[in-house]
Amino acid sequence: MTDFTLSTDAEGIATLTWDCPGKSMNVMSLDGLAELDKLIDAALADEAVKGIVITSGKDGSFAGGMDLNLLATLKEEAGDNPAQGLFDGVMQMHALLRKIELAGMDPKTKKGGKPIAAALPGTAAGIGLELPLATHRIFVADNPKARIGLPEIMVGIFPGAGGTTRLVRKLGAMGASPFLLEGKMVEPKKAKGAGIVDEVVADPLAAAKDWVKTAKDADIVKPWDAKGYKMPGGAPYHPAGFMTFVGASAMVNGRTQGAFPAAKALLSAVYEGALVDFDTALRIEARWFTHVLMNPSSGAMIRSLFVNKEALEKGAVRPEGIPDQRVKKIGVLGAGMMGSGIALVSAQAGMEVVLVDRDQAAADKGKAYTEAYLDKGIKRGKVTAETKEAMLNQITATPDLEHLKGCDLIIEAVFEDPKVKAEMTQKVEAVIPEDCIFASNTSTLPITGLAKASSRPEQFIGIHFFSPVEKMFLVEIIKGKQTGPRAVAKALDYVRQIRKTPIVVNDARFFYCNRCIIPYVNEGARMITEGVAPALVDNAARQLGFPVGPIQLTDETSIDLGAKIARATKEAMGNAYPASAADDPIFWMEDLGRLGRKTKAGFFDYDEAGKRQGYWKGMHDKFPLAETQPDLIEVQERLMFVQVLEAVRALEEGVLEDIREGDVGAVLAWGFAPWSGGPFSWLDIIGAEYAAERCDQLEAAYGARFKCPDLLREMAEKGQSFYSRFAPEAKAA
Fold first, then answer.
1. How would residue 243 be classed by pLDDT, with cut points 50, 70 and 90?
2. Lowest mean pLDDT among 107-111, 365-369, 490-494, 703-707
3. DSSP code of 651?
C-alpha cells in the first residue's frame, strides 16, 4: 500500500496522486516522502513525460499536514545528536521540494524544465500547502468549505518545509504575516485574493493539465529564481522593508510577550532569510525550525494541542461497548446567555432544539440570540438567508414543557441555585422519555448533589460549557457518583457533534477547570492585599502567555460573581472553609458597588463605552502599595504553582482520570500558558525535583496552599515525570 501513485496519459501529462490508505485526509510520513521523491525522479527522467500534475485522491481535500510522529522519528534515529537528525531530515524535505521547483531545468539558463502544477480538490494545510507552493502553478477547487493555510504556529512550531521562505518571497513579510504568525486559514477565493494560490476553478485537475500542456520555460521560473528579483514590500535593508520588520518585531512581542518560542524563531527565520539568496534562506529556515523542535515547549504544545486534543475528540475516554448516542432532539432549559449559546451550537450541528424559559418573551429573547449571530454571519458573507431560515426553524422557543417530549438529551442552564435546579429537574423528568439523558450546565455545584432530585441518577450528568459557548473550544463533562456509562457516552457524542473538545472528570466542588482557575484569581487578589502593584501581577501573567491577568479576569467575569462563589462555598463547607485574604478585596469592592466591567467600575476605571482606563487608584487607600515590589519571577511562580498544584491534587483525588484531559482542558478552558502544553507538561519541563523544592520555598514564604502534594513529592524522589508515569501507554503497560 502506497501513499503516492503515478500515471501518464497519451499526451505525456503525468498525474501524481496523493492518497493515504485508511485516512480521511492525506498526511505526510517518512515513507510518503521517500515515495514522492522516487516518483518525482522517475517523472523528470522519463522523456515521454511533458509535465506533471500533483493532486489528491481524497474528495474535498488535498492534505492536512505532516504526521508529527515523523519529527519524533527523526530525533530518535539520530541517537545522541537529535538536533542533527532533525536538521538533516528537514534539509531532505527542502531538497525534494526544491527538486520539484527547479523541475530539471538548466541551472544557468533556467530552461528545459518540466512544468509542474498542483490541483487541490479542497483543504490544504501545513505541508499540504508547502508542497503546492513549490510547484509552478496552484489550482484549487471552488469549494467554500475548503481551507488553505499554514496553521503550524497554533501548535508551537512554524512552517519548516519551505513554507515560511516561499510565502514571504511570494507575498512579502507584511502579506505573509497573517498566515505565518496567526496561522490564518482561508477559503480558496480569499487565498487567491491574498496571492497564495493562482486559480480557483470548478475542475482543478483538468485546469492544471491544460496549463501544463501550454506552459513555457518562463512560466515555470519562480520569481526568486529569476534575475533581478526583489522581495514584495522590500527586504530588511530597504527603507520600506526595514520599517516592516521593525513593526513585525514589535507586533510579535506585543502579542506574545516573549512567551512563545515559535513566534520569535519564525520572525528570525524570516528576517535572516530575507538577507540572503533563496537556497541559503531555506537552510536558515531549517536551522530555526530545528531550534524550535528542540525546545521542550514545542513538544509539549504538539502533544497537548494536536495529539492529545485529537485523541480526546475521537473518543479516547469514551466508555466501551456503548452504541452511538448521537443527539437528534435536545431540550435546553433556560434561555439566558448560556442557554441561548447552547441552543445556537446545537442548531448549528443540525439538531432539533427546544429552548424553554419561564414565559414566551424570555424564550423568544433566547432564540433571538441565534438570529443576531446569523445576521452577523450574513453581513460577513459566511451565512446565507436560506441557512438562517433553516436554523431558526430548528429552534422552538417556548415556556411549555410539553414540547420536550421526544428529546433524547436535556441540558439545564437555569439559575445557579440547587433548589431551582431540583424543581426544574423533577418537572422535566415527568415529561421526557425514560431513556432521555439529563445534564446540568452548572459551573460550581456538585453533580452528585443535584442528581438527588432526579429519579434516574444514572442518567444524570454534568455538561459544563464556558462562556461564550459559541467561541469557547472546551466542554467539561462531570460524572456524578451514580452517573452511568451511557450518560457519559451521550455527553461525549453530543460534544463531538457540536465540534468541541471534551474532557471527562469525576464530581467534586468546582470540578477541574474552576478548581484550578479560582486559585489563580485568588492569588492576584492576595497580592493586592500585600501591596503588590496590580500592573505587575497582570503583566507577569501575560508574560507567561495567559490571555489576561488574574485582576483583569476578575473584572471581566464580575466581582459579585466571585463574592457569590465565596459565600456559597463557605456555606457548603462550614468550618472547613479556608479563610483567605483573597476574599477581602472582593467583598470590599462588592460593598462599594464596583462590580467590574459590567458596571464600568471595578479594579479598573472605565469610560462610558466600557473601555479600560487604567487601574483604579482608590484600591490603594485600603491596600497601600508596598515600597519594595517583588521580583517578576517570584510573582510568576506564585501564579503558576497555585494552579498546577490544584491540578496535581485533582489527579491525586481521582477528579482527573487522565492527564491528557488535565493539560488540554487547562489550555482550552482558561488559556493556561499554551506554550507549556498545560500544567502537567509544565511540571515535566521544569522537573518534579525542582517543583517539589520550589513548593517548599513557596509554602514557607506564603502558606499551606503551596504545600507539595504527596504525589509530586514521591515523583521527585523517584525521578519520574507525569507523562512517563501517567500517559495512557504507561498505564496500559
1. low
2. 107-111
3. H
State whether residue 401 is helix, strand or coil: helix
Encode pLDDT of 272-297 as tens digits.
998 999 999 999 999 999 999 998 88
Measured CA to CA, the distance from residue 209 to residue 117 in angstroms comes to 8
CA 136/CA 377 separation, integer angstroms: 35
* Chain Cα centroid distance, residue 450: 32
| 136 is annotated as an active-site residue | no
The residues, any chain, with a CB within 8 Å of residue 488's CB and separated by 6 or more, are 318, 319, 461, 477, 479, 504
Per-residue pLDDT, 569:
78
Helix (H, G, I), strand (E, B) or coil at 421: helix
Any idea which residue has 487541490 for its cell?
120
pLDDT at residue 732 in the model: 46
Main-chain phi, psi angles of 474, to 5 degrees = -105, 145
In angstroms, the CA 348 to CA 343 distance is: 9
pLDDT greater than 80 at residue 42: yes
Query: Per residue in 534-562, is it b (16+ CB within 10 Å) or e — as a string?
Result: bebbbbbbbbbbbebbbbbbbbebbbbbb
pLDDT per position as a tens digit, 297-350: 888 888 898 889 999 999 999 999 999 999 999 999 999 999 999 999 999 999
Q: Does 240 score more than 70 pLDDT? A: no
- Positive or negative: CA dihedral 459, 460, 466, 469: positive
Residue 180, helix vs strand vs coil? helix
Contacts of residue 267, defined as CB under 8 A and 6 or more positions apart, other chains included, come to 181, 248, 249, 252
Q: Answer yes or no: is pLDDT of 733 > 50.
A: no
Provide DSSP, 316-350. Answer: TTSPTTPPP---SEEEEE--SHHHHHHHHHHHHTT
To which residue does cell 530545528 refer? 290
d(CA 184, CA 72): 26
Residue 254 pLDDT exceeds 70? no
94, 136, 291, 464: which one is catalytic?
464
Cβ–Cβ under 8 Å, residues 318 and 657: no
Determine the average pLDDT of the residues in 54-71.
87
Q: Are 665 and 503 in contact (CB under 8 A)?
A: yes
Helix axis angle for 632-652 and 679-686, nearest 10°, is 120
pLDDT of residue 503: 97
| H-state helical runs in 54-187 | 69-77, 82-102, 127-133, 163-180
Q: Are 706 and 642 in contact (CB under 8 A)?
A: yes
Q: Report whether pLDDT(389) > 60.
A: yes
Q: Which of 324, 572, 315 shows the shortest CA–CA distance to 448?
A: 572
Q: Is the pLDDT of residue 561 over 50?
A: yes
pTM, to two decimals: 0.86
Give the span between the Cα atoms of 514 and 446, in whole angstroms: 12
Half-sphere exposure of 319 (CA within 13 A, CB side): 15
Give mean pLDDT, residues 487-491: 97
Distance (Å, whole) CA 625 – CA 635: 15
- In a 13 Å sphere around the CA of 233, the CA atoms on its Cβ side amount to 20
Q: What pLDDT sits at residue 454?
A: 95
List the grid coordinates of 80.
545522541
Distance CA 416, CA 401 (A): 20
d(CA 485, CA 187): 40
CA 184 to CA 173: how far, in whole Å? 15
Which sign does the torsion angle of CA 219, 221, 223, 226 carry? negative
Residue of 701, 703, 683, 680 lying closest to 692 (CA atoms): 683
- Among candidate residues 648, 653, 686, 654, the one with its CA nearest the CA of residue 666: 648
